[in-house]
Amino acid sequence: MMELAEVPVRGPPPSFDKSHLLFAFLTIGATGTIGRSSLAKEAGLGEGAVRTVLKRLREGEYARVDASGCHLTASGASTYRAVKRELSDPLQLGGSHLTLGRAQTALAVRGAGRLVRKGLEQRDSAVRAGAAGATTYIVKSGKFMIPDGSKDCETDFPDPAWATLRSKLRPREGDAVVLCGSSDETTATLGALSAALTLI
């Protein structure tokens, strides 16, 4: 589905990237039906950008738009289920000491721990999306670890957020957990999605 974000368009570059496209797609899938203005607000898009996102989703037969709002097609719903098997729901943490930013979003990318090198690619992708920073953890032997760093982050960096990550994300052995921070929730979520896309 992400190839839709690469389709060239005439005129100036679009004011969105793959994380916006994924955010919009997941928002439609989660809500079932959503109005265009509400979708624009949720995904942090202007009216023009959300029109272009919806145009690409329609052209790919992932979504349709009618008088009641935006919906996924049968093909889009199938893709949505496939994406959800790889990606957890975004978890809003608020502030923690585990990454930068007062608004923080965590995502589990199922089985992607083996794809994480040092976490720099995920951090850089999140920053390009406007976030303050991101930290990528790998679940190994039941513990959160950082590549080339702590082998047991809960012991080395105590914080109540670990319990929330465990209870809400339910991370599994071999998962990657991306925690992204920003000044606002929407940008933190876009940054987390952008980081996750480097692992999908």
Question: How would you characterize the overall build of this protein?
Answer:
Strands 3-4-7-5-6 form a five-stranded antiparallel sheet, sandwiched between helices. The chain is of the alpha+beta class and 200 residues long. α1 (18-31) packs across α3, α1 crosses α8 (185-197) and α5 (120-128) packs across α8. The chain starts with 17 loop residues before the first helix and ends with a helix. β5 and β6 (143-145) form a beta hairpin. It has helices spanning 18-31, 36-43, 47-59, 74-86, 120-128, 153-156, 161-169, 185-197, and strands at 63-66, 69-72, 91-92, 103-109, 133-140, 143-145, 176-182. 42% of the residues are buried. The protein has two domains: 2-85, Orthogonal Bundle (Arc Repressor Mutant, subunit A), CATH 1.10.10; 87-197, 2-Layer Sandwich (Gyrase A, domain 2).
Q: What's the structural blueprint in terms of helices and strands?
A:
Blueprint: H1 18-31, H2 36-43, H3 47-59, E1 63-66, E2 69-72, H4 74-86, E3 91-92, E4 103-109, H5 120-128, E5 133-140, E6 143-145, H6 153-156, H7 161-169, E7 176-182, H8 185-197
Antiparallel strand pairs: 1-2, 3-4, 4-7, 5-6, 5-7
Listing every helix as H and every strand as E from the N terminus to the C terminus, the arrangement reads HHHEEHEEHEEHHEH
- Looking at the structure, the CATH topology of the largest domain is Gyrase A, domain 2
Give the CATH class of the largest domain. Alpha Beta
* Cα radius of gyration in angstroms: 17 Å
Number of helices: 8
User: In the CATH hierarchy, what is the superfamily of the largest domain?
Assistant: GAD-like domain
Approximate shape: elongated
Helical amount:
40-55%
Q: What is the terminal-to-terminal distance? A: 11 Å
| Reported CATH architecture of the largest domain | 2-Layer Sandwich
Quantity of strands, as a count:
7
